[in-house]
Amino acid sequence: MATIAAIPCPLGLAVAGADVGDRAARILPWDIAADLLDDPTLSVVVVDDIPAWHHERILAAIASGDPSAPAVASAPTREGVAGLARRPRRWARTVALSVLAGDLSAACCRAGFALPAPDDALAIARAAAALAERHHGLIAVRARLAAEHPFLGDHAYQAMPGALAERVVLAGRARSSEPRPVVAERRPVADLLGKVARFACRRADTAAAAHAILAGEVEWDARGRLELHPVGGGSHQVGATTVRLGVGGLHSEDSPGIIDGPLTDLDVASYYPSIIHADRISPPGVPDFATSVGTLMARRLVAKRAGDRLASEALKIVVNSLYGQLGNSRSGVWSPPDALRVVLTGQLLLLRLIDGLLDAGCDLISANTDGVVVRGPHRHAADRWRQETGFALEEHVYARLVRTSVNDYVAIGADGAVVKTKGAFAGGDDRRTASRSAAPIIARAAVARLVHGHDPAEVVAASSDALDFTLWRRARDMTWSDQPIAGSVVRWVASRQGRPIVQATNGSVRTVAAAALLVDDPTTLDLTRIDRAWYRDEAERLIAAVVGPAPDAARQLSLFS
């Protein structure tokens, strides 16, 4: 199936092919555009400046030759779109770019593409087509969902993951567009959960943490804001580690450093969906919610074992998004007490796992929502927890862990290679995260020193890829050199010839970057203008956050000074 991006503009319909690149990018007169859209094998990608269904209504009017459609397409408004007659589309499907890649400008930054000007329809079409090609696998995954769940209709290509998951669970039943009224309430945790004996721990420290939750209270307001009030506060010493309890899950307060192994990372597979199914948690009005979640999980497991990647990934989108809908006030399955049941049960069962591991002689190295990292004889305790809960534990062995906090670390395998990076270290020797990270050269240079013993200055000096140095963020209320930044995103590199990026919000002013050179297109950046010393220094700061600051004499300045 051919895929194009289609962007209406005053001159006609800007189109670009996702398969053939810039040579297919052009602006078509409206009559030629109508012929192009009259193709039942065509997939059309639209940018969400207006809702996807508004785009489809406009394009269907263009395809049918409606004389009023070009004016509406050139400057679409809600009223103008509503004035167009509803017509069936003549192409196969309309895909919202946002469900594939998010915001167009942010997606271009992540992909390393040029930022299209807001008024350049042809550049927007090229970028959208390139992003569609980059995410063609996700389109295929959603096509599989559409094939297996025909009732999804166009939502398979236009709904965000949470809303899509909800529609799958509702299995074609009407989804309420009005949020269910919720009454603010404060309740004892033990009353909310029931059957609290199953959370009993043997050790005094884990038992105290569990008691803090079970003897405490929870509350939610009419807007769905959740709070946990544990007895004795939310911070508890468990083993040699401090853990924090809250509505966001259980997290350890990890000190910086390098931890030698062997270490075992135990992650609970599909933790929150597993709790929903096992505890029969179903929001009001959806009595089969838990059963449906269990069925979807079982189907995904079958697909995974059969090597059916598309089906497995399609069901993964659904399964992993369902818990969030319980806490989403715009969802038809919104239920604050059920969201709390899931997250609190998750913390208490994780404490049970930690209890068994510590009792078996393990050291608790880290804990984070749905898993733990331990050192020591874990096998028996992990197997017993699996049997008690029925949940799957995935195991990964690390030789070392380099970290600054629970969410910022590098995991090193037995062969000395980097297995995983996260947070501040994302992109350091890990290509899976490098494409999503800002200025990955900082993490790469830090990992080079911490893991491989290389000089970070040499790593920074050796790079000839502009994307290694680009930083970006949302440009709300920002100026560059005292001039307002017009786009939704700003991208820059540190440069000695740069100017400050400043953000003024709610009366406060802060400097985002002291010396920034704006980068619309990384392929045209003059690399000699990059202040590589700044990136070296940032890498050194990240290294120092792990091992402490180096003596001045040890600093490598020769490449930059």
Describe the protein's architecture and organization:
The strands form 5 sheets. A 6-stranded antiparallel sheet has the order 13-14-12-15-16-17. Among the domains are: about 1-160, no CATH class; about 270-335; about 460-555, no CATH class. The chain is globular. The termini are far apart. It is α+β, with helices and mostly antiparallel strands and about 550 residues long. It is built from 21 helices and 22 strands. The longest helix has 24 residues, at about 335-360. Helix 12 (about 205-215) runs antiparallel to helix 16.
Mean pLDDT, as a whole number? Answer: 91
Alpha carbon gap, first and last residue: 55 Å
- How does the major sheet shape up? 6 strands, antiparallel
The low-confidence runs, each spanning 5 or more residues with pLDDT under 50, are: 553-561
Number of strands: 22
What would the keywords be for this entry?
single chain; 561 residues; alpha+beta; six-stranded antiparallel sheet; five-stranded mixed sheet; 21 helices; 22 strands; globular; disordered C terminus
